[in-house]
Design brief:
By secondary structure, the chain is of the alpha/beta class. The chain has 16 helices and 15 strands. It folds into 2 domains: about 200 residues, P-loop containing nucleotide triphosphate hydrolases (Rossmann fold); about 110 residues, Magnesium chelatase subunit I, C-Terminal domain (Helicase, Ruva Protein, domain 3).
Amino acid sequence: MTEEGKVTPEEFEARSKTFLETFERMETEMAKVIVGHRHIVHSLLMCLIAKGNVLLEGVPGIGKTMLVRTLAEVIDVPFGRIQFTPDLMPADILGTQMVYEGEDGRKTFGFQKGPLFASVILADEINRATPKTQSALLEAMQEHSVTIGGTRHVMEEPFFVLATQNPLEMEGTYPLPEAQLDRFFFKLDVGTPSLDDLTEISARTTREVHPTIEKVTDGETIIAMQRLARAVAIAKHVERFAAKLIVASHPTSDLAVPAVKRYVKYGASPRGLQALVVAGKIQALLDGRVHVSCDDIRRSAHAALRHRLILNFEGEADAISLDGIVDEILAKVPEFEEEAVAAKA
């Protein structure tokens, strides 16, 4: 360490190597249980390192719950699972004040923690709970703390929420408002398995022998990885490129591409920019670099932006793909200002 407490280039390089090794080991262990979905697992771990939260969307029975449970097994941290239902109340997940009787017979109030007080939380079928309960979870996600009875209770770090929602059977559900969706770092669409993956799933799940998962790391190491990721350098023009992607997602912007002007009602927020930059830093470390490139920003654009773009009436009526709009933004927004000037000329 230097006198100012900063990490020297040699120390940073050594920590970056350890970062990559730990990340790859986590991926390897999860692959023992999770068949396919390599991109989903990769993005899930990136979000954990980014101190973000993930929204997983997919049809039932494709392994969303197993994905989260396996992650908790790979990391030596407490795991909590909450099954959201219409009758679930905020106190059911946050906890509540309880009356305790001591040995001397005196009664006192004490806080009984709810299942949300764990490090890795699976919020299963979040769109089945009422807005009141959804808001309680989302506030805890944002603040990493809850206030009960006038007392603030802080979540133990790392604190990572993975919420799932089923795009089918929407009757009787409470879709998350667009402003609440923005609180999720990534939205990942979990697709149906391929033929080969289905065959492998059958082979792994219909026999008595089950794979043994080794714990790769612990909470302290994850926190250190989170700090290292945010220390990665990013050039001004790369950061500006990420900002231009956000600006280009707004239909009233001069940078807006045709698809955005026609189909988008509202574009991405500054949280989208934060997700692009932090994810880019993590991607750089995973590629063995200590600086972010524009390609690093592009790699996570779909997961960071697809839930932050709101379609207008025409977009909804035509069932326009949000990923397709992100594709057009990535294709037409230039990396450098000079390219934009030349294109206009």
